[in-house]
């Protein structure tokens, strides 16, 4: 028997640990590339400042990377500890990208990161530069495999249910790999990581410029971050739009919830810029709409409709009814033995089995579901509209502000005018948190929009959990939150400490605080 | 593509073993070094040398652990699901301990304060001592069987808690596991340190090596004399699909030594586990550090492999319902998944080994106090 409150706690634990992990991941993705670019400039120009830049931003990279690795361990454990039935049900597919990630990407990144930090004197310039590029490549490949796994949860292609083993099994690896959702998500996510790295370097460099400290160092960092950031934010926005298109195809309920499309409208659908969705009343208060835009984003046409929530519910109801039949047949196959007739009947309806399993939350014996149970399951088949609607707009809003900051910074760099406008420097400093806000909101949209499924239309979230008492999950959640809070405080303390010290922390004798010390030493 | 499902299952049993041994050989010496921090690291500088001896390698080493977990998920999803959810509290404690390592290594020397550094030393100590003990206790419990079972939809349940795991035999295996990794860590330190610190490392190899051999011998005798094994009586053709609910298993009679009795040549594996730790101490005492570390590797590999062979074909015996024990025949993924992963492993395990060896080669050599002092800003 599944403990319903354990499901909620397990979800909370997953959400918190995943969001926490993703504080560190995007900075790793972005900074690793920026480090590789800086070091390439060093090897090409042989200017010392570029090596110092690589080492200083590398130090901050290291502080961040340690917590990325730490919090990643939790993610690896968590599927097995808290989501045992999920692990059994889809391990045949989902485990594969995770294992391949370890072998092809995480090994590369982690083995070479040691040489990045410790190998400056042991490797030739070219060797060290290759190491840095391979670290960047490894971290990005890592993201690729994880997003292939995640995309399969959203859009489970290349797999089929096997009643003999009671699980989903892979039928085509290439379909899993070339899952269109995965391709779009990968580029959108890594590009948002590049934006994070760029905003981090841009904001901190701007702060040095405002303080008039280590100006040549800060200017060069600013210029690199501005151009890298501009290219990245453009790809994030374009690919984000592309993922809107993919959503329209495979995850209509998510799209309808993000847009609070209660009814199907005459195409092309209008885009609701802002408003306050009310799920019980099924309408959006204070809505501000722009005609045509949603229809064009989601269908790339002006004639195809975007399905509204009311119509989706009708479709879901029909599938739930077929799902009940599928469940009954599966029970017969598992408990009464296999006959040709049952097998054939089951194969015909098994694509709706997941919808039948949706009922299990209220009725353990799905076949005895009442009309009221079915109606409740239909309501549950639509994700929560309000958080999706708001989180999506928060993400897009942050993205647009960052676009402006990067374009302005890039314009100044091309005019060789970095630091001329103090307002831009100040804006860059206060924009530092924006990429994180956008990324976390993006994940809230992606994963809350997947509800009530852990695997889209295949396995409901509430069935995926381990058979654990809520108290067990609460204790682990509290313990992890306490540890994470402590680690986060330490991390922020070190980060701020080294940012304040700036490149003087390298101990080269070339930077602000060291010069100051020398000057005051000479004065005495 | 290997079309024979049975062979494929065997290969994956061996590959999971390789990954586990890879984890113990690499991440294992990191943990041993961490456990030795307060024991042989007398001053801050000593402890910095010890930490920097693994500084360039611990992140890569830890990936053996992550990859072994991933491979378990992909190759034996039922084992991953039942073991991780069943041993819930033990695994959460392991996880909390593991948190201490990446941050400990990276943050410890970033502040020049005695209190800061001492606190991190203890955190690193805990992060290095707790996981080996828990892994050992878990391994020990496999021989007794774990109280899990499945319903007809293959949802696993576990009837028991943390305290049920803490019986005498598994606890001794836990201590053995710690002793083994301490020996291994000390053998690594013999390679990487000089002067007094090296002398203390030699002593540590001797003490831990003796303890490892003795405890290993005791566990073997214990297993032989008073713990009964599991035996499959009937099971479906291993070339067919996998379903752990349709075999019959006998327990209470027989022993975990059946495989050794059937194929006596296998005795050389436990013999490695028994003798190599002793040989490692002899070798490092005579100044043959490279060979000593190699002997330590062979000892660790022998001990882990001997446990796997004894359990074969069981992976996770169930004491609650022996018929539902998980074996390498019925807890595996589909043939397609095993094949794909095999191809990836055949290309990438050698690649990984290649660049890992290159990184060790590049960072080879002993660390001394002068080296730490001259590079204070860039080292751990």
What distinguishing features does this structure have?
heterodimer, A: about 525 residues, two-stranded antiparallel ribbon, 19 helices, B: about 375 residues, mainly alpha, about 70% helix, globular
Task: Describe the protein.
The complex is a heterodimer of chains A (524) and B (380). Chain A is mainly alpha-helical and 524 residues long. Helix content of chain A is 73%, strand content 6%. Chain A contains 19 helices and six strands. The mean pLDDT of chain A is 90. In chain B, strands 1-2 form a two-stranded antiparallel ribbon. A two-stranded antiparallel sheet of chain B has the order 3-4. In chain B, helix 1 runs antiparallel to helix 3 and helix 1 packs antiparallel against helix 6. The termini of chain B are far apart. Chain B is mainly α and 380 residues long. Classes of the chains: A mainly alpha (524), B mainly alpha (380). At the A-B interface, helix 2, helix 3, strand 2 and helix 18 of A face helix 3, helix 4, helix 5, strand 2 and helix 12 of B.
Extract low-pLDDT stretches of chain A: none
Individual helix count of chain A: 19
CA gyration radius of chain A, whole angstroms: 26 Å
Helix content of chain A: over 70%
Report how far the terminal alpha carbons of chain A are from each other: 78 Å
Average pLDDT for all residues of chain A: 90
Secondary-structure-based class of chain A equals: mainly alpha
Q: Largest sheet of chain B, described in full?
A: 2 strands, antiparallel
Mean of all residue-level pLDDT scores of chain B: 93
Proportion in helices of chain B: 55-70%
Name the chain pair whose interface involves the most residues: A-B, 80 and 71 residues
Strand composition percent of chain B: 5-15%
**Which stretches of chain B of 5+ consecutive residues score pLDDT under 50?**
none
The neighbouring-strand order within the major sheet of chain A is: 1-2
